[in-house]
Amino acid sequence: VIPAVVAVDGPAAAGKTTTCLALAQRFGLSYLESGRTYRIIALEALRRRVSTSDRQEIVILCDDLIRESRDQDLLTSGRYGNEDLRSPAVNVAVSDVARIGEVRERVTHLVRLWAAGQERCIVEGRDIGTVVFPEALVKFYLSASAEVRARRRVDQERRGSYEDVLKDVIRRDEADMSRTVSPLVPADDAINIDTTSLTLKEVLGRMSSACAAVT
Ligand code: C5P
């Protein structure tokens, strides 16, 4: 069975989570933030002192975590707080972890398993429309200038200086777009929305029309 999926991809701090939560509520979709899983793996690597540049060790850690959490729980686990998952150290480590093909395969498998158990869902990430669900019902690619994304992130999280956040956003975009496995790129059939000069309401308006047409 092909699950009914709305795919939302795009660079860091493009507004994926905010828009996904609103659409999930409006259309009655289950919501999954795939970046969270990559962040959990990165956080555990830091905690267990596994070097994120040691590919083999990270893959072993990933398998341990999946075993310990009994598969899908790794995706939806409430054991981790945002404070830890969104720390500057994890922001750096996650790019290393997400570059490893074997890690991506495992996370992709978990996300597909989860989606197969949902009636209809919305999933956000970097490779959802391109790799994880190429057959998604609707695909969105959200973007905005790095400056605007950094500004919004600072206003929203009230943590870190604008300069630091901007640097991190640019660094993560570069890492996500240039990696060899599943780089961040819009799917050919994605609806591209540049939100630089749009309000949240306008963005949601466009996304809702597209969702309403298929759900
Ligand atoms: O979405 P979020 O910014 O929390 O994701 C953190 C990191 O996880 C991204 O910078 C990216 O490297 C990685 N990621 C990914 N593929 C996804 C989701 C996230 O590579 N589908």
Automatic annotation (TrEMBL):
The listed locations are: Cytoplasm
Molecular function terms from GO: ATP binding; CMP kinase activity; dCMP kinase activity
Q: State its Enzyme Commission number(s).
A: 2.7.4.25
Checking SUPFAM superfamilies in the record gives:
P-loop containing nucleoside triphosphate hydrolases
Q: What is its main location?
A: cytoplasm
Q: Which residues form the Cytidylate kinase domain?
A: 6-207
GO biological process assignments: pyrimidine nucleotide metabolic process
Which family is it part of?
Belongs to the cytidylate kinase family. Type 1 subfamily.
Name the UniProt record assigns to this protein: Cytidylate kinase
Q: What is the lineage of its organism?
A: Bacteria, Bacillati, Actinomycetota, Actinomycetes, Pseudonocardiales
Gene from which the chain derives: cmk
